[in-house]
Every structure is written in structure tokens, then in C-alpha cells.
Amino acid sequence: MKIFSSNKRSRVARKSHHRSGTQSLSQFFSLRYQRGRLVQQLIGFLGVIAIVVAIQGWIYPFTYRVGDRFPDGLAARMTFKVVNNFETSRVAKERERLVPLIFRNDSSPLKLAPDQLKAALGAIAEAETLADLNLDVRQAFGLIEGPSVPKIDLTNPTQGGAVDVSADVRFRFEQLKQAITPLDARQSDTHISSIIDEFTRLIQPLYKTGIIDAKDLTRRDLGLDSPLAIVDENVELPRPNPLEDTELWIAVSITDVAMSDLLNDAGFLGHRWSDFPRLETIRQPLEQWMRNQVRHTLEYDQASTQLARRWAGKQVEPVYDLINEGDEFLPPDGIVDTNLLNILIAEYDASLELFTFETRMARAAIVFLMVSILLVIASWYLFRFETGLVTSWARLSVFLAVITLAVFFGRLTSFDPVRGEVAIVVATSMIITVAYNQRLAVATAFLLSLLIAMATRINFAQFTVMLTAATIAVTCLQRVQSRSTIIKAGFLSGLLTFVVAWGMEILLYPSDSLYYWFDPLLLQLCLKYAGWCVLAGFILAGSLPFIESTFGVVTGISLLEMSDPSHPLLQELVRRAPGTYNHSIALGIIGEAAAKEIGADGLLVRVGAYFHDIGKIPKAEYFIENRPSGATNRHDTLAPAMSTLIIIGHVKDGVELAEEYHLPQVLIDFIEQHHGTTLVEYFFHAANKKADEEPDRKQDVEESAFRYPGPKPQTREAGILMLADCVESASRTLSEPTPARIRTLVHQLTMKRLLDGQFDECSLKLSEIHQIEESLIKSLISMHHGRIVYPESTKVQKTA
Description:
With 800 residues, the protein is mainly α. InterPro entries: HD/PDEase_dom, HD_domain, HDIG_dom, Metal-dep_PHydrolase_7TM_extra, Metal-dep_PHydrolase_7TM_intra, PgpH_phosphodiesterase.
């Protein structure tokens, strides 16, 4: 046991400990890298499964469409049954015709008839002569006087006379009055009440069946054998079959509800007159009164009738025709029409029934393998050119989700009569262009065209049309600075797609007749493709805000909106930091020109310049461009380190302001990166000078404390803004900004940033940096150009 032990570690121990820490760190990063690759592989695996499900990889696709031409003809590949739509429709209509018409019965008018008849008979009993009877009652009983009419004797035409109509009416009136008036006048009311009681019992069975309007007989084209269903007006019929419950309705025929049929000798009421002796004596005038006064009680229920007929028609079993294997569908050079397409669909459905579960799973496995190969090829492209998309699991998931949805909707819309798969490919490719870039959009269009063609028709012409339409639309969207750009891209894509679709059909199916070149079905299909391309442009133009928020991108349209001087942040900047605002405007001008020189996004650089220094708003007076002439420099009372913290802090303050005002991330990146990790040289040298003056100086000033936190510029646009920012600010320090001095200044600052490694993380090339430098020199010389000095006017004094 050692009593005296030293705490000092040996060199070997310290070396071993350092190696262990380094090894642990490398293992940590290796494990993190492996986890990242595992997540990528898992997302890719799920993406393959989703695509296989979207295209229904377990069944083979239905490849026929209206307008397809078969030079060798087409015959049945198997024996199957196909629905005969004509016969099925005929049987269904016949079944619908047998469904009774539904009428709603409101018996209240019929229940009022006895009281109305009693009042009319009472008026007749009280009237002494026909003239004493009011007109309504006379009309109701048909007791209307008129002129004499000629009477012709058919046995002796030479002899004739005249019939006195008035006398006949008066005679009938007297007969009716006598029939309802008993010998004892005091019993008149009792006799009429007896008549009304018999009349009530006569018509009481009609309360349930009702009376139909004579106009409905002609309006509904009803015959004597037409069935009717009488339903009380307060009864609610069931759905979807209103006539399901037979207890809710009464089946009748026309003769049971038509007044004329009820009153004739063979009718329901005609058989019952003998049961009511008092009514039988006044049968003729009473029948006349009932025809004129009894209102109809049945109203046609069109909605319930149509519902019942539709339900009955749906219950009809389809009528099938048998198609034998080898039966010819099309002769050589035949074209598929709608009728034949239905037969081919029936054959396709019948063939799917022959596929066992094992066969379907085997096909799904093959499709899974093929899709996996396609995505592996696509992943090589992504790893090679789109590393930012692959390294972010969220972006990769969104990208694969877009592909899956596009394949699903492309397959869904590829059938007749829509044929809209080209619109899905065009719209998706344009979205990828807006969200990422044209190169990825073209690759996506190729992948989508291949997958949709594999899932629908497996047709080379279809693949070519989809790929061509998408590629044309993508090439027109290099810069999306207005919605009209997208719409124009859709129109141009539609125009050229029409030509390509028409040309592919002519090339693949040659014909010795020029008629096929202008076949209506072919031209209609080509126009449909063109129309879908145009529609895709309009839809994308209207959904840009949703696309921007989903993919986190900013289009030129949004940038133009944010460049408006009335933006709240810019208004705050011009109010509280006017010098910074003027600097930002000048920086936007020269930065945009430099960006356009190398083919970068000039609009993005200009808008980024407008907002890059918004972090100076809270402490505007600490920045020299905002200090009024003659005002005290606030940094004179501060230590260099504190001044540096304030200067560097405008980056952090700018990010916070940008997030508060919901600026897009691309502009926040400009705020963070426009200084990179450069050194605040003025205060660094001031700190060194102050440290040199201290006699007990212990350590040098740390340079890292006087550098911006970064990050360095990550894009070409951010690198352009950094360089333009420093040269525009420095050019204001030149007392005489001659072209030579400006050129020297810009070159020195460019080389300083280059040697400091500020452009290491962006994709700027040396040749592009040189082009940027020349553009900045040209812009600054233009801004600081000289003016002609006008001579002062001399005042001539006259001597007196």
C-alpha cells in the first residue's frame, strides 16, 4: 500500500485518456451517421410501399381507352358475361312503369260536401220559382236557362220544331223541388236531413280513396289500368322505398277515384244508389251537383313516386350476354368506342376474378422490386445533386408523399372520360420547380411519367406525352415573379402537348388514309391533353401561397410583395434608422445587378438587402450612418468589447424582428449570413491599442470575441450580399471616390473576404467572384459619378 501517492498523471495515462475521448466522440458521430442513414432507408422503404399501394401493384392495369386503335383487330381472350345495358334498362323501365303513382289524399273537401249539399237543397226548397234561386246553386245543379234550339225529326226531316230549353230547366227544377219537399211542409228540414244522412253514408268510403282531378288523368297520361297508391297526407313514407310498408297506402285503379267512373252505372257509386231510396229519386241532379261541386282530394306526390320507381329499377337483375373466347371485338384498324370499352371492362373484371391471393402477392412483390430499383436510381441522383433534400428527413418525407399522391391521382384520373394524368404530372413538376429547382423537377417528371405509365396503360405514347408536357412547363418557370408566368407556361405546355400527342399517334399507328390524321376522337383526345395542361397552370397559380407554406419556399411573387416600401418593417426602418434604410436601398440596387451578372436570383438579393440590417432599428443611434452630423459618438464612452457586442448584436436583433414579423426563412438567412464570421476590425484594433497601453497586460485580446457568430454565406445570393454590403459601406469613406480608388477598394475587400474563407461554404466560383467584383465596381462608379461644377455668379455693383 502506497502511503505517499502523487495526483500527477503520467504521460501515458493522459495520452490514453485523450485517445479514449476522441474514440468516444468518433463513435458518437458514427452512430449518429448510421441512424441518419437508417432513417433515410426507412423513409425510402415506406415510400416504396406507399407507391405500390397507390398504383395497386397486386393487379395488372386496365390498358384500354376510348380512341385506341388496333391495326390487327381485337378479340376476346376468354369466355365471360357482359351486362346488356339496353335490355337491362328496358326491364328496369318496365319495372318502374309498374310502380303505382303515389297520390296524397286530403279528405277535408269531401267531408265538407254534405254541408254544402244541405245548404243547396235548402235553398231549392225555399225558392218559389227558378228565378228565386241564386245563380251558384242553379249552375251546380245544371238549371241554367237558355234560348230555344231546333228539334229535328229524323223520320220526317221536312217537319221540325223547336225545343224550349227554359221550359225543360223549369220542369227539372219543379221535379227536384218536389222530390226534396214532403207533403207536410213542416217536415221539410227533417226530410232534407235524411237525404244528407244518406248522402254522407254514400260518399263515406271515398274518404280513404279520395277523388282525383280530371286534369291529372291527361297530364300524367294515365290509363284505366294505371295503378295508383293513395297515401294520407299526414303519413311519412319510408326511404329508400316509399311503398315498402303496404299498410301505409291503398292500391286503387283510375275507376276507383275518377268521379265520372264512380258515378256511371258500373262504378262504385252507381251500384249503391239502390241502397239509398231518397237519393235515388234525385240521382240525376245530384250526380250533376257532385260533378260540379265536389272538389278533388288527391294531389300527385312526384318526389315519392320517382323515389319508389328508382328503387324498383335498381332491384332489377342485370341482363347478361355471353361472350365466347375468340369472338371478334374489332376488325383490323378498328377504334375503341364507349360501347366496346364497357365490354372490355367486363372482360377485365372477369379476368381479375381468376387471380388467386398468391398470384396477387407475387405480382405485388415484383412491382415492389421494380419501384425499389427506380427509387434507388432516383436516390443516386438526389445524393449527387440534391443533398439538402436527402439529409433532411422531413423534406424527404414530403417529397416522397408528393410523388405518392401524384401517382395515386394520376392513375385515378387516367380513365375515360377524364384522361387527366397529364395534368397531374405537369402540376407536380411545376410545384417541384417552385419548391426546389428545374433540374429536380425534370427528374421528378421522368419518374412520375414512368410510374403512372406503368400503373395505367404501359404505353410509350402516353409516357412521351406526359414527360414532354411536364418538361415544357418546367423550362418556362426559371423565375416565378408573377402568376402570369405560370399561366403562360401552362398555355405553352398545352400547345406543344397537343402537337406531340397528335404526332405520337400518327407515328405509332400509320395509316394510308389522311382521314385518320384528323379523326375526331384523336383530335378530341389531343385537345383534352392540352386543356389539362392549361388548367394545371391556372390551378398552380391560385395555390401558390399553400405551396410556399408547405415547402417553406418563397416565390418571386411573394418577394415582390415584401419589397413594397409600405411593408411595416421597412416603414419602421426608414423612420428610426434612415441612414440604414438608404444604405439598404443602394445595396439592393448594386446587389441585384451583380446577381444578374452571374445568373443568380437578383430579386432575392434585392429584397434580402432591404431587410438585412433591420436589427439596427432598436439601437440605431449606435451606428454611424444614423448619427446626425455633430452628434456625440456613443461608442466613445464604451469599452471596445461592449461596442463590439452592440455592433454584432444587430444580427440577433434582426433575426428576432424577422421572426416577429413572420418573414420567410430565406430572408432570415440573409440577416444571419450577411456578415459571416468576419472581424469587427475597428473595435478589435481599438481593443489591442488599449491593451498595449496597460502596463500589467497579461494576455492578448482574443480575436474570436470580435468576430460575428456567423454562419458564413451558404448560397450564392448570400455571398453576393456580403460582398456588396462591405464595398457599399466602405465606398462612403472615400473622400474622392474616383474610379481608380473605387476599383482598388473593391478588389482589396474582395480578396480580404476570399482569403478569410467567407465564401468557402457557398457555391461561388472564382470566375463568378470576379464577375461580381466587376459589376460592383461598375455600379459604384455610376453611383459616385462626378458632376459639372457651375461657376458662381458675380454680383456687378454699379458705381454712382
